[in-house]
Amino acid sequence: MGDDILIYEPTERFSSTNILYGNHFRFHIEALPDLTFFAQSVVLPSILSSAVKRATPFATVQEVGDHLEYGTFDVNYRIDAQFKAYTSLLWWLQGYGFPHSYEEVKQFRETRSKRIANPRPIVREVEKTSAILYILEPDTEKSIVEIQFSDVFPVSLGQLDFVTTSTDAAELTTVVTFRCTVFDVVPTL
């Protein structure tokens, strides 16, 4: 991931009139596989290119910048009956967020380090992970495109509404907001 450069080859003539539907996807986050089944929606991050101002005697000219900044991305998901995905995300946030003591941070890093292939992972590897959004062909599990996220970590965990006044038993859902360093779009067909 990240080593392959996406080469864009424009078509000479537009040949496909098929539409891509937004409900054919699967989201997988390496450090939190519990979330995969319960993900309801994924909103890709915005991408912002910087512009550099170049002064001239007559006007300031905007030039193309050389850095991209990726915004946050949201995953809306259902709460599982064992509350596992929510508590895993909470533990992750508290693990790097110094909630009560340095001992908790140490335990977080030790536990996460055991799940990483590198025998001596650096802090960045412990606190971040990778994720893939698979865009699927309709009515199949065949991937059309993979959107591969690097250096993923949660920055916000949404609220949960427990309500006793409703006559219907509504499913609990919430949203988790992630940050990433970069994402790559990789065609798989």
Task: Report on this structure.
With 189 residues, the chain is α+β, with helices and mostly antiparallel strands. It has one domain. 19% of the residues lie in helices and 38% in strands. The protein has 4 helices and 9 strands, in the order E-H-E-E-E-E-H-H-H-E-E-E-E. The strands form 2 sheets. Strands 1, 2, 5, 6, 7, 8 and 9 form a 7-stranded antiparallel β-sheet that branches. It has a two-stranded antiparallel sheet with strand order 3-4. Strand 3 and strand 4 form a beta hairpin. Helix 2 packs across helix 3. The longest helix has 13 residues. 13% of the residues are buried.
Measured on Cα atoms, how large is the radius of gyration? 21 Å
Q: Please tally the helical runs, counting DSSP H or I stretches of 4 or more residues.
A: 4
- Which structural class fits the helix and strand makeup? alpha+beta
In total, the number of strands is: 9
| H-E order | EHEEEEHHHEEEE
Mind describing the biggest β-sheet?
7 strands, antiparallel
